[in-house]
């Protein structure tokens, strides 16, 4: 036990000493409630700076979110945002993105979008020029190109292609298939006959939890930038962008473009952003839960923790994280399965600060 405590202390001290940004441990440090405010998953500092420049110059919350997420796409943040990363089983990169206006509750989103690199701007076009919420696949590409975005273009990169070739050489392992044959090589796959009891709720809900895909999710495969902005008027917007899980089954859509899962905003209450195992999170709509918990009076810290715990009760191996921010700009985070960091810029800060949340 003493050894475990010492190891944990060493991890905490290392995090504090190694960071070049101001940090708060866990959920304990929150800002003073001023806005405008920008909050983003991960130390995507340049993306937060881009959003801050926009909102500080008087742009709306929606416009500022678009500027921030677009900067992350251009920088290819962590290889999981924008073009050039996260190849699917066919070696192709596709884009998921969402933007939500917390004042009008309008949402625009694209999913499994091919040939167009500007995910967040594509999502904005869906919100601006259609009465729909979500457009997917190649038809989404055709729509946004017709609305003026550049394309078609190849979204792969030498790095994503090399990663895919290495994965193929390793027998397509790991992958997201289950209950198929062949089990340890590349497809085509065929269903494996299962005992009838596997379909029962008792076996799936047994002690130890329901199996999840979180073994594939780590700090280099965490999917999403999720960003919230409160503008000078107090209006709130959120946006997300991702190129999805690496080696996903083609056509897969994660939680990135799903309102209430990767992000949610209501100007009357606050906002939430999430990152991690999107296939699990979208089953719980954690960001919708966070905002509704804050509506009922729960503090951002407790609302974020409660949403994470609701997932881990069913999926103990879940890997993911949430930030919550109320309408006054008070923010907090919660996570499970990894150490989470989120970035903040407010009027009382000289530059972006990165906050660290321990699982």
Automatic annotation (TrEMBL):
It catalyses: Cleavage of a beta-linked Asp residue from the N-terminus of a polypeptide. Residues 1-26 form the signal peptide. GO terms for biological process: proteolysis. One of its GO terms (cellular component) is cytoplasm. It holds the Pfam family Asparaginase_2. Its EC number is 3.4.19.5. SUPFAM superfamilies: N-terminal nucleophile aminohydrolases (Ntn hydrolases) (SSF56235). Substrate binds at residues 252-255, 275-278. This is beta-aspartyl-peptidase. It comes from Aquilegia coerulea.
């Amino acid at each position: 036990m003493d050894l475990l405590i010492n190891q944990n202390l060493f991890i905490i001290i290392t995090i504090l000493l190694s960071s070049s940004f101001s940090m708060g441990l866990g959920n304990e440090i929150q800002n003073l409630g001023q806005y405008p405010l920008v909050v983003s998953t991960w130390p995507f500092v340049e993306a937060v700076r881009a959003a801050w420049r926009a909102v500080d110059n008087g742009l709306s919350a929606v416009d500022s979110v678009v500027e921030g997420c677009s900067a992350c796409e251009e920088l290819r943040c962590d290889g999981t945002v924008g073009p050039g990363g996260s190849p699917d089983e066919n070696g192709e990169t596709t884009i998921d993105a969402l933007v939500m206006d917390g004042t009008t509750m309008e949402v625009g989103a694209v999913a499994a979008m091919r040939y167009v690199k500007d995910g967040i701007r594509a999502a904005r076009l869906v919100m601006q020029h259609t009465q729909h919420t979500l457009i997917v696949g190649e038809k989404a590409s055709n729509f946004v190109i017709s609305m003026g975005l550049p394309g078609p273009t190849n979204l792969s990169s030498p790095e994503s292609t090399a990663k895919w070739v290495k994965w193929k050489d390793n027998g397509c392992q790991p992958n997201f298939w289950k209950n198929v044959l062949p089990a340890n090589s590349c497809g085509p796959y065929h269903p494996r006959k299962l005992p009838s009891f596997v379909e029962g709720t008792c076996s799936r809900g047994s002690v130890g939890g329901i199996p999840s895909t979180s073994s594939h999710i780590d700090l280099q495969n965490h999917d999403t930038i999720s960003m919230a902005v409160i503008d000078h008027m107090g209006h709130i917007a959120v946006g997300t962008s991702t190129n999805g899980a690496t080696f996903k089954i083609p056509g897969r859509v994660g939680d990135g473009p799903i309102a209430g899962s990767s992000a949610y905003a209501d100007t009357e209450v606050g906002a939430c952003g999430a990152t991690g195992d999107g296939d699990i999170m979208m089953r719980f709509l954690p960001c919708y839960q966070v905002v509704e918990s804050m509506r009922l009076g729960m503090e951002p810290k407790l609302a974020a923790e409660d949403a994470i715990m609701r997932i881990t009760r069913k999926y103990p191996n879940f890997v993911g994280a949430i930030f919550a921010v109320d309408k006054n700009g008070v923010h907090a985070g919660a996570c499970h399965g990894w150490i989470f960091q989120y970035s903040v810029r407010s009027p009382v800060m000289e530059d972006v600060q990165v906050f660290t949340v321990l699982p």
